[in-house]
Amino acid sequence: MRANHLEDYFQFLRFPSISTDDQYTDNVAECAHWLVEKLTAIGLETKLVPTPGHPVVWAKNKHQPGRKTVMIYGHYDVQPPDPLELWDSPPFEPVLKNGYVFARGSTDNKGQILSHILGVQETLEQSGDLPVNLHFVIEGEEEIGSGSLPQFLTENRDALRSDIAVVSDTGMIARGKPTLSYGLRGVTALELKITAARIDLHSGVYGGSVANPITALARLLATMHDADGHVAIEGFYDQVLPLEDWEREAWRKLPIDADKEILQETGAPALFGEKGYSTLERIWGRPTAEINGIGGGYQGMGTKTVIASHAMAKVTFRLVPDQDGAEILRVAHLHLEKHLPPGVTMEITDGHSGPWYRTDPHSKFGEAALRALQTAFKKEPAVIREGGSIPIISEFRKILGVETLLLGLALPDCRAHSPNENFPVENLEAGIRLNKAVLQELAR
Ligand code: BES
Ligand code: ZN
Does the C-beta of 390 come closer than 6 Å to ligand 1? Predict the structure, then answer.
């Protein structure tokens, strides 16, 4: 690894480009500017495109007629690093330990997108040109739902015309094991607020006379699943396509012990999920309902004898083919209204949502990607689906008419979104090789 590559990586990681928090808006912009300078320095024509939210960085080489056009997408925004006290080193002061770089964004997505930039840099240095017409589209709002990107894509649809998109923002099934993902889950969100009394009440004076909103919320949330881990919302599974036999069989044959690894990675005392499916099937091919946050009442030290006025919860659903986010929100609303305990009122606010994605791993471009993975890693690639979401991928299909190759470089224990996020230098190097190989293969 060239020392200046690592220096670039560390500079990129030092920006606290936290898209969700207004306090960091300037840092997000500075990070975008850094990318513009970097992409310009390697010889690409680069623009910083303002949006109503965070800017998009758009770079291209000199396009020539008759060549394939490839769009490489990534994001420079990161998740908040909280809880800070659980980090072994500060999240925005990258450190290299035993071959791994620790920092927020090291894997998701700065390390992965930078490896493509460095790959292009090396190719341009070595041969002065790329084998394809290239677009880099690197956004600053992926972690908050890519709200501004559809408009950018629509406004620049003709200029962005591409044959295929390449994205490294997913995982590898194991260290050194190249992985092509052909599916992602979608996601849709809602928030609910349960209210009883107008104000917090003395629980001795009023306890027994009016409903407790926290109790009501707990009862309500508990109706969302049955004891076997199935989602108990009527109609929730109506649009779900069953897993195909070939998929179940292929996933069973993957050279990993997912159950053991997930127990290790998470520290949970046991696995739990929808009965009748293996762990990988539940994560990659089945929908879920998750309570992401819950609040209400006294949270301070000691005891407070109080009946809170309200309680709230944040809920998201992960979606699989052929579920529709709007339909899932509709049946979720019906379910929550039907099971709302007496004596309280409820307000539901819908949040962002993004569709699932599924493509053909054995298309002409899919096969090219598999050859590139084989070249870069010298190993047979795994072909999988994944549980995470990149909602903008389906907009690439809808707005630009392009399919996406998901060539992830994240390791299972990378701790994306968690404390001590890390990325091995080995994968930065592999990503550079992968970039060169995939542009070669796609050019054919
Ligand atoms: N890189 C992830 C998505 C991902 C993670 C895909 C693991 C496959 C495997 C991305 O940055 C992400 O976290 N996406 C969010 C989307 C949400 C904010 C709409 C997610 O999946 O929660
Ligand atoms: Zn992420």
Answer: yes
| The predicted structure's pLDDT at residue 353 | 86
Evaluate if residue 254 carries a pLDDT over 90.
yes
The C-alpha atoms of residue 247 and residue 239 are separated, in whole angstroms, by: 19
Q: Does ligand 1 lie within 6 Å of residue 8's CB atom?
A: no
Q: What is the count of structural domains for the chain?
A: 2
Contact 407, 434 (CB under 8 A): yes
pLDDT recorded at residue 73: 98
pLDDT tens-digit profile of 403-423?
999 999 999 999 999 999 999
Tens of pLDDT, residues 294-333: 999 999 999 999 999 999 999 999 999 999 999 999 999 9
Residue 160 and residue 293 in one domain: no
Considering the domain architecture, whether residues 350 and 363 belong to the same structural domain is answered as no
Q: Measured in angstroms, how far is the CA atom of residue 144 from the centroid of ligand 1? A: 10
Mutate to test the pocket of ligand 1, among 73, 106, 169 (most ligand atoms within 8 A of CB): 169
Half-sphere exposure of 208 (CA within 13 A, CB side): 2
Give yes or no for residue 84 having a pLDDT over 90: yes
**Residues 293, 307: contact at Cβ < 8 Å?**
no
Predicted model pTM: 0.94
Residue nearest (by alpha carbon) to ligand 1 atom 4: 388
pLDDT of residue 161: 97
CA 392–ligand 1 middle distance (angstroms):
11
Q: Is residue 254 part of a domain?
A: no
Residue nearest to atom 16 of ligand 1 (CA): 389
Q: Which residues surround ligand 2, an ion (CB under 5 A)?
A: 108
Mean residue pLDDT across the chain: 97
Ligand 2 center from residue 421 Cα (angstroms): 11
Cβ(141) – ligand 1 distance below 6 Å: no
Q: Is the CB of 388 under 6 A from ligand 1?
A: yes
Helices 3-14 and 425-443 cross at an angle (nearest 10°) of: 100
> Is the same domain home to 28 and 165?
yes
Q: Which of 298, 329, 354 is the last residue of a domain?
A: 354
Identity of the residue numbered 266: T
Q: Which two tokens stand for residue 343?
A: 């004596």
Tokens of 121: 């840099």
Label residue 352 by pLDDT band (50, 70, 90).
confident
Single-letter residue type at 198: R
| 139 C-beta closer than 6 A to ligand 1 | no
